[in-house]
Amino acid sequence: MASLGASFVQIKFDDILFYENCGGGSFGSVYRARWLSQDKEVAVKKLLKIEKEADILSVLSHRNIIQFYGAILEAPNYGIVTEYASGGCLFDYLSSSESEHISMKQIMTWAMDIAKGMHYLQDEAPVKVIHRDLKSRNVVLTVDKIPKICDFGASRFHSHTTHMSLVGTFPWMAPEVIQSLPVSETCDTYSYGVVLWEMLTREIPFKGLEGLQVAWLVVEKNERLTIPSSCPASFACLMRSCWATEPKVRPLFKHILSTLETMWSDTHLPEECNTFLHNKAEWRCEIEATLERLKRLERDLSTKEQELKARERRLKMWERKLIEQSRTPLLPNLEIHSWTEEHVHFWMQQIFEGVISLSRSCHPPH
Fold first, then answer.
1. Do 141 and 147 meet the contact criterion of CB atoms below 8 Å apart?
2. C-alpha distance from residue 182 to each of 1, 166, 171, 187, 212 (Å)
3. Beta bridge partners of residue 129, listed in sequence order
4. C-alpha angle 91/120/147, rounded to 5°?
């Protein structure tokens, strides 16, 4: 695929004036900067080396995909140069006080714009692309609040036998990505459902849980984010379909767009949604209750693991004692027909004491 990016602009390192660090992307830090010769404010992601990201970005052009300007190819100062979105990332916006006034219309607009960008990647771009790391931190907002999907460091050109290494962020990752199984474009559908949940709840996905805990809960326990009971049914249905365990069951983005368009024309939805958005205190406890349950579930798992390890140690000790005893005769005289009553009594006593000893070693007092 290297030939796809053969025509992208190579920008000189000394033609970039760096300002502040404005976040981290996949495999690099992102800076606000100025492209001096073009007198243009830009974002630059510094990299250790240029891999697929420049090739992928160089063939993409869509209103809801970050615009690629070129790449810095001067070792060791490699970098990806894109447009700068001054509105910051969606994650930060949803965490700010400004998000308390978010409306159903704004959520629907962003949901459709992000879906349009993803649909472009799947069906309209020159080469089909799987993003693999769609999340609210990788959606940035322009000054006009237009969302732009960015950070293609984890992305790959799609093939029918695509096998992906483990990249991404666990709360947004589909089960098959967590397990490093072959993936299709619907791994991005799963992530989109999480972004939609973020916009509706303004909560952090699986807040308070470590990444590996989330991975275990999603894959082994088939757990998903809590959809509050008062969430409008159409949104709840869409998110559940995005989070289906079986990738083939999840909707493609063309179907998601069709669903959103139907929702947009539902005259009852705006009132339902706005009521839901402005009554967060009433349903936030549902999300918190689920988080507590998941934390207990994870703690129970940890306790069970420790118990199993202790039991395994006790069994090994028992095995060693049995081996030792098998090598030591209980009686010096093994001619059973010549045993007296005292011999039998001594033999039974030895067995009884051995069983008590082994039992204590396997079940020590608490």
1. yes
2. 20, 11, 19, 10, 20
3. 157
4. 25
Read off the pLDDT of residues 97-112 as tens digits, 9 standing for 90 and up: 988 888 999 999 999 9
Res. 28: pLDDT tops 60: yes
Does CATH number 3.40.50.720 belong to domain 2-83?
Answer: no
Q: What CA dihedral angle connects 257, 261, 262 and 265, to 10 degrees? A: 170
Task: Convert 309-326 to b/e letters by CB count within 10 Å (16 or more is b).
Answer: eeeeebeeeeeeeeeeee
Check if 133 is active-site. Answer: yes
What is the Cα–Cα distance from 49 to 75, expressed in whole angstroms? Answer: 8
Q: What topology is assigned to 90-283 in CATH?
A: Transferase(Phosphotransferase); domain 1 (1.10.510)
Q: pTM score, two decimals?
A: 0.77
Flag whether pLDDT at 143 surpasses 90.
Answer: yes
Please identify which residue in the block is written with the tokens 């999907």.
149
β-strand partners of 73 = 78
Domain boundaries, the chain: 2-83, 90-283, 329-361
Strand 147-149 and strand 139-141: the pairing is antiparallel
The tokens describing 194, both together, are: 């999480």
Query: Can you tell me the distance from the alpha carbon of 116 to that of 82, in angstroms, rounded to the nearest whole number?
Result: 20
Q: Which of 55, 113, 133, 151 is catalytic?
A: 133
Contact 45, 76 (CB under 8 A): no
